[in-house]
Design brief:
By secondary structure, the chain is mainly beta. 8% of the residues lie in helices and 54% in strands. Strands 2-1-5-4-3 form a 5-stranded mixed beta sheet.
């Protein structure tokens, strides 16, 4: 198991009220992968650095499908 698997990742999730961050365990999804959250489907537009200061976890930036 890699360090990324143990530390998890973040999801940058769009909504009608703006964006929210969600923490997840495991490995981050890949670019162009579909992710379902609360019945809504999103696509990973990119994997980047966490927007939180000093946070080493990757962040999957999502787009609504």
């Amino acid at each position: 198991m890699s360090d990324d698997d143990r530390n998890g990742y973040l999801l940058f999730v769009p909504s009608p009220k703006g964006y929210r961050l969600e923490e997840r365990d495991g490995a981050a999804p890949e670019r162009d992968e579909r992710v379902e959250i609360d019945g809504a489907v999103f696509i990973v537009s990119r994997i980047g650095a966490s927007p939180l200061p000093q946070d080493p976890r990757p962040c999957a930036y999502l787009l609504s499908c």
